[in-house]
Amino acid sequence: MREKMQGEFHIHIDAHQISNKFETFVREELKFYDSDFSGHPEGILHFETPRHLTYKTRNSRAFKVTFDRLLAYLDRSSDSLEGYVEGEYIPLDIEIAQTPFNADVPIPCQWQLGSLPSGKFREDEIHITFDRDRSDPRAIAALRSMGFFSAYMSKPYGTAEILTVQGTRQVIQTLLSEILPYLKNAGGVANCSIKEERAIRWWMSSPSVPLPPVVRSISMRSVSS
Q1: How far is Cα 55 from Cα 57, in angstroms, rounded to an integer?
Q2: How far is CA 7 from the centre of its chain?
Q3: What superkingdom heads the lineage (predicted)?
Q4: What is the pLDDT of residues 69-119, one digit of tens each?
Q5: How far is it, in rounded angstroms, from Cα 10 to Cα 8?
Q6: Rounded to an integer, what distance in angstroms lies between the CA atom of residue 211 and that of residue 120?
């Protein structure tokens, strides 16, 4: 398990509809890049938007300036985007070493999801990213069973599966304390990393825009080792 250097800032544009003019602006002027999802596992909960663009920096001022310019554009032309914008700080980014899957390690917890109140936004989230085709199917099934929603994304090595759970800061810290030891002890996943992404700024095109659900309750299954 190797911890990467923290302190990165991300801005994601999650678009159900996006105007060509606005997309040209964010790509050419703000240096966003395409990071579209490529579907999702059949029968698994999913909430990916059709368009997903990303900006990353380690400079807090660059993050603020870019987000301010983005919002200034949307204030002038709010119909340019139907969707939402996430401004995030990444305090945790850990690579998980690949080991054989140990089916004797039980999943530590499961959770139930619920909708956010209208106009509210999630505080924090966990992403677990791994190589879909080189990971043990039993490990993937165990992770999915906890309650994550899922999406696929193309990576240099092939197709990544990205498992996500969102909630309050307190809830996400509780889940991290359970999930990190599980990943280390159960193994079975290739090219795996786990990230915490805290929402520090956000924008929605309307209070009723569809958002992913958040954790409402957690059922502990075992004591983490």
Answers
A1: 7
A2: 16
A3: Bacteria
A4: 999 999 999 899 999 999 999 999 999 999 999 999 999 999 999 999 988
A5: 7
A6: 9
Asked if pLDDT for residue 208 goes beyond 60, the answer is yes
Q: What is the pLDDT of residues 48-64, one digit of tens each?
A: 999 999 999 999 999 99
196 near 158, Cβ under 8 Å? no
pLDDT score of 222 more than 80: no
Q: Quick one: tokens of 166?
A: 């969102």
Euclidean distance between CA atoms 138 and 140, whole angstroms: 5
C-alpha 138/C-alpha 183 separation (Å) is 13
User: Average pLDDT for residues 16-37, to the nearest whole number?
Assistant: 97
Distances (CA, A) of 128 to 68, 91, 143, 166: 29, 14, 9, 12
Can you point out the beta strands (E) in the chain? 2-3, 8-18, 33-34, 51-57, 81-96, 109-114, 124-131, 149-155, 158-167, 192-204, 214-220
132 and 152 in contact (C-beta within 8 Å)?
Answer: yes
Residue 64, helix vs strand vs coil: helix
pTM for the whole structure: 0.93
